[in-house]
Amino acid sequence: MKISVNQIQCKRCGSIITSEHSHDLKWCMCRGVAVDGGRDYLKRLTGDPPSEYTGISKWEE
């Protein structure tokens, strides 16, 4: 399976953030979480203060 969309939603601010390509680190509006990796890998980071997130990435066969 391959990643088709690398996306998370921050539970604190509600931002949906998408990483488009490898090394494309994107933070949510409150800087509580970040997503990276594009369609190559899934990487999640937490900020200070950290926030929880919901993974909403999509996969294809």
Automatic annotation (TrEMBL):
At the top level, the lineage of the source is Bacteria
Any one Pfam family here would be DUF7695
Q: In this protein, which residues make up the domain named DUF7695?
A: 2-48
Question: What InterPro entries does the entry give?
Answer: DUF7695
Q: What is this protein called?
A: DUF7695 domain-containing protein
